Structures are given as C-alpha cells and as structure tokens.
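step=encode ok
step=design start
structure_in=
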C-alpha cells in the first residue's frame, strides 16, 4: 500500500509524478461548469480507467495511471450539471520533450504503439534511431502515450502550443 505523498517505484524511475499544478479536467467539463461540482466522487467511482481523482474537492485526471477512452461514464454518473457535452478530445495535446529516448540515441517507439489515433509517427534520421513527430490535428489528448513512456518525456501542452518535436 502506497503512503500518501510517497512515490511509487515507477514514478521514481520516471522522475516524479505529473505536475500537480496542471489540473486536467475530465472530458466535457469546462472551467465555468466546474463550479457546479460538489465533490461527490461519482465520476471517480465510475471511471473504468481509474484515472480520475478528487484534488481539492474537484475532479482531475492523472494520465500517468492510464488513458481516457472518452467512454462517458464520468459524465453519465455525475448528478450535477458539470459536464456540458460528450467530448471526443481534450483542449490540450501532448508534447514530447528532449528527454525522449530517441533523442538520446536509444530506440523506443512505445508512445506510437500506444496511441489510439496514430497521432505519433516516427521519422528516420540519418545515423540514429527514428524520432517522434506529433500530428496535432490527430491528437485527442487522451494520455495513452503519457502512461507508457518509460522516461516520462511525454506531457500535456495547451492546444495552441506549437512544440518543436510534438
């Protein structure tokens, strides 16, 4: 059993947990409707991926645990008008940092293999392993690539952000 505040072995090896200052809302929740949340935890209980938790009494997603499949179970179980519509994407995309293994000359394509929309592709580089490229228009922000990354090089970024490698 993990103590509150303690890092799991996986989190330790990945360099810590997802930044707690960045709160990712469940799909279909807007800042304006989040005020209606009573913190009942129904969305937490009904999330089949177990990625929703209450942080300061409000729902937040943790993509280091798994991905969002946009199943709608959180919205269907919510007794308050927190969810405005069924969503099929987030208002963020992913970004791949320089810590990504191919940039360190180590072959890895785990994020590509995990991506359900094929938004991450790898292009060849002369004399080295293939490097990742993100097709921003195909990225739903589901987080599948975040949980699978062995070095924690994949994070979320605002949809308007243009990243060098992402």
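sequence_out=
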């Amino acid at each position: 059993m993990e103590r509150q505040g303690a890092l799991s072995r996986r989190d330790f090896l990945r360099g810590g947990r997802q930044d707690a200052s960045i709160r990712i809302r469940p799909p279909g929740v807007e800042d304006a409707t989040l005020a209606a949340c009573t913190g009942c935890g129904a969305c937490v209980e009904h999330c089949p991926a177990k990625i929703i938790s209450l942080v300061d009494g409000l729902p937040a997603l943790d993509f280091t645990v798994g991905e969002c499949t946009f199943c709608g179970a959180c919205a269907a179980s919510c007794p308050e008008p927190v969810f405005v519509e069924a969503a099929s994407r987030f208002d963020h995309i992913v970004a791949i940092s320089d810590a990504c293994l191919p940039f360190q000359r180590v072959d890895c394509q785990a994020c590509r293999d995990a991506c359900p929309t094929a938004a991450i592709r790898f292009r060849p580089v002369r004399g080295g392993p293939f490097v990742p490229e993100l097709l921003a228009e195909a990225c739903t922000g589901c987080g599948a690539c975040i949980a699978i990354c062995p070095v924690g090089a994949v994070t979320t970024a605002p949809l308007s952000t243009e990243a060098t490698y992402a």
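step=design ok
step=annotate ok -> Confidence is low (pLDDT under 50) at residues 1-8, 10-21.
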